[in-house]
Amino acid sequence: MRTPAGTECRYYYGDFHRGRARQECRLILAERDSLPWQPDLCSACTVPGILRANGSPHLHLRLSVRKRFGLFTRLHLVAACREHATELHDPYRGCPECARGAGGQRG
Prior knowledge:
Layout: E1 12-15, E2 22-25, H1 26-29, H2 47-53, E3 59-68, E4 72-81, E5 86-87, H3 96-105
Antiparallel strand pairs: 1-2, 3-4, 4-5
């Protein structure tokens, strides 16, 4: 679904049918320690770009809203590979173990 920032994201949900005004980020709803989500946070979110770059079925994302310096809200993203149970340092590139395994199966 198209976010308020104009990008496609599978975790964003908006329902404006017949006067409803419901917007939510379903990735943040899963986090208990997150602050409330606001639609303007979509403009700074990296999740749509990561989903376009990394099509791995083992990609697991955790996103939360946190306060920075007590004043500013920011998004905190943690990406991991479910298959190898490792945290990804560059979620755009994906899991190096998965890439090694895919490269070794060719040929």
